[in-house]
Amino acid sequence: MTAIGDNDRRIEKYRRMQRIRQFETRAETIHAAGEIPGALHTYAGMEASGVGACMALRDDDYMVGTHRSHGHPIAKGAKLRSLMAELLGKVTGICKGKGGSMHLSDFSMGSLGETSIVGSGGPVTAGAALGAKLQGLDRVALCFFGDGASSEGAIHEGMNLAAVWKLPAIFVCENNRFGMSTPTAAGVAGAHVADRAHGYGIPGIIVDGQDVDAVEAAVREAVDRARAGKGPTLIETKTYRYADHAVNMGRDLTPRGPEHDEWLARDPIVLYRARLVEDGVSGADLDAIDVQVAEEVADALNFARESAYPAFEEAFDHVFVDRLPIPDDVRAHA
Amino acid sequence: MAKITYLEAIYQAQAEEMERDSKVFIMGEDIRCNVFGTTTGFVERFGEERVRDTPISENGFIGAAGGAAMVGMRPIVDATISSFLFPAMDQICSIIAKSRYIYGGQAQLPLVIRSCLFYGNSNAAQHSDRPYSMFMNMPGLKIIAPSNAHDMKGLLKAAIRDNDPVMSFEDSTCWMVKSEVPDDLDFVIPLGKGEVKREGTDVTVVAIAGAVNIALKAAEKLKAEGISVEVVDPRTLVPLDRDIILRSVRKTGRAICVDPAHKTCSAASEIAATIAEEAFEALRAPVVRVTTPDTHLPFSPHIEKPLYPSIERIMDAARRLVGAPAPQPQPA
Q1: Per-position DSSP letters for B265-286, written without gaps between them
Q2: How far apart are CA A264 and CA A259, in angstroms?
Q3: Are B81 and B168 in the same domain?
Q4: Between chain A and chain B, how many beta carbons pairs sit less than 8 Å apart?
């Protein structure tokens, strides 16, 4: 638990959700304008899932995420400058311009990767939890994955290993209704991903993924259980992806049904704002947060735009500890 | 100095490094029961937390080694037979090889993935792979393939101490072969340094893993025919000691690359290409590969054994390169 009181904690949840939404809105706009190379997978609509889960973690707890990577680091508290710079492929990016949209992983926030091979975070999470346990640290490791990944063997191998060894791990399936263009029901047998927990003898919890307090409470219980040495939990957050699998692809691949409008009507940020106001937080204070966040996003974008692209040598660094030599024939035309 | 087997060298390297560094631990399928003798007494000595039997879940526990390494541990994974690496290609290639790079140097993965090359003993195609060259094509993985107990111990200790992921391919044809190994607890052989195992002047034989021992026997027989063979063992395939190979070929002007792997895109192929690119002016004859052909390995020993590089095939290649006729059978 971070050292902030309950009221501050609720404001912080609102702030982080706003950060994600505004970051994504801006990223989508500049991607459309051609400023961001490659594909852009946005997290809008899923903010309560990521923020709720990360607010139940300590700063030194570990987290592994997915190709839809922008929301997780912001949810865990990362600053925006190096994330935006990474999207633009700049050397000041969190991955020095070598990861991009699918890999916004800030290790200083306890992240151990945002991995774009669907499901591949499962074994890594189990291993991080094992590493924490072997070193006598009371840290936990949390794995974000999607409904699509719930059919990948790697997720199941990670959950089985964590369950067999009673590792301090939490598996959070962010069920956003679609694996790219495939509706969950067409890719996942059984009613709920969370039901799969029973096969491993671990708790399987379903939570409203648009309710940030509910997600935090569910993950906190799982974190407490993990820290107490009682093993992993599988939590399924029922949420919704607003944008297409990747934005600005020219045509929408996501087959939206009649429930689309119902999901939009349950926007996690609108819902939470209403709850806070009902509980006595002033709308003006929340407006002020919105403005502060807009300034943070603008600052991050300015920083990214003003940053340099990586030198060509960077392409040969970090394959190993020692930088690789650049072949002469490649250098001649770089 | 003591004379020990290749398997004892693996045991000693692991035991010494686990004793030296509490961050080192070992996991794999059925390792507590010590199938091959490389973890003798480990549970009693290091405890069950550091000597872990895993589920049959290669992608799971090899990926978990990646996660544990990222948070400060130094795992040794015993994947037993190298064919069992295939279910874990996902974690080896997408997580372990790439995490340092993708995240701009934020991740460090000091881990060793051990597996044996289990060929030549009627284990059929699914257990007989020699897949190191497949991993040579994936940046981010260091690869050792020692040919004797001395090198095995020194290289494995270096691998465990290295801060990059290292794959150790251990040739089962070398398991029971003994050699002199230093007792020094800090005896390590730097990764990326090959060794000339036998000096010669007419032909260079660059041999991989167990093929080194076959090449040395062929060299001895060829000496009787007046052909002087230099045998070079790269020992480490990534990074590859190109200098030691090129230096030898520039001296002899002829090269044979001997590799138990399948011919296409083998380590021999990479070495042959390097020689052709870098030492073409020194060559007096074409570069030759002696490898396992691109067919699968059958169960029945009579049709399995002739597929691997042999003393006879190396001798034929050497005679061809120096233009010497094969000796005629002597009349009875």
Answers
A1: T-HHHHHHHHHHHHSGGG-SS-
A2: 9
A3: yes
A4: 154
A9: which residues sit within 8 A by CB, 6+ positions away? A2, A55
Which of B54, B74, B100, B101 to mutate to test binding with chain A, by most A CBs within 10 Å of its CB? B101
Q: Which of residues 114-173 of B touch A (CB under 8 A)?
A: 139-140, 142, 163-164
**Does any CB of chain A come closer than 8 Å to the CB of residue B100?**
yes
CATH number of the domain that B153 lies in? 3.40.50.970
Residue B110 preceded by cis peptide, ω within 30: no
DSSP helix, strand, coil percent of chain B (3-state; round to 5): 40, 20, 40
Its domain, for residue B205, covers 195-320
DSSP-based three-state secondary structure for B60: helix
Chain A residues near residue B142 by CB distance under 8 angstroms: 320
**Tens of pLDDT along B95-130?**
999 999 999 999 999 999 999 999 999 999 999 999
Residue A221: Cβ within 10 Å count: 16
Give the residue from B181, B209, B227 where a domain finishes: B181
Residue B159 lies in a domain: yes
Q: How far, CA to CA in Å, does A250 sit from each of A32, A42, A67, A255?
A: 10, 16, 20, 15
- Token pair of A323, please? 């930088």
Question: Which residues in chain B are closer than 8 Å to A126, comparing Cβ atoms?
Answer: 60, 63-64, 67
Domain check: are B220 and B156 in the same one? no
Is the Cβ pair A113, B99 closer than 8 Å? Answer: yes
B188 domain residue, yes or no: no
Tokens found for residue B152: 């095995």
pLDDT tens for each residue of B231-257: 999 999 999 999 999 999 999 999 999
Q: Domain check: are B103 and B211 in the same one?
A: no
Query: Per-residue pLDDT for A1 more than 80?
Result: no
For a pLDDT cut of 90, what percent of chain B falls above it? 96
Cβ–Cβ < 8 Å for B220, B187: no
Put simply, the answer to whether A320 touches B49 (Cβ < 8 Å) is: no
Give the domains, in start order, of chain A with CATH numbers: 6-331 (3.40.50.970)
**CATH number of residue B285's parent domain:** 3.40.50.920
Residues of A in contact with B103 (CB under 8 A): 94-95, 98-99, 103, 105, 107, 113
- Tokens (6 digits) for B45: 């000595």
Q: Looking at the complex, does the CB of residue B25 fall below 8 Å from at least one CB of chain A?
A: yes
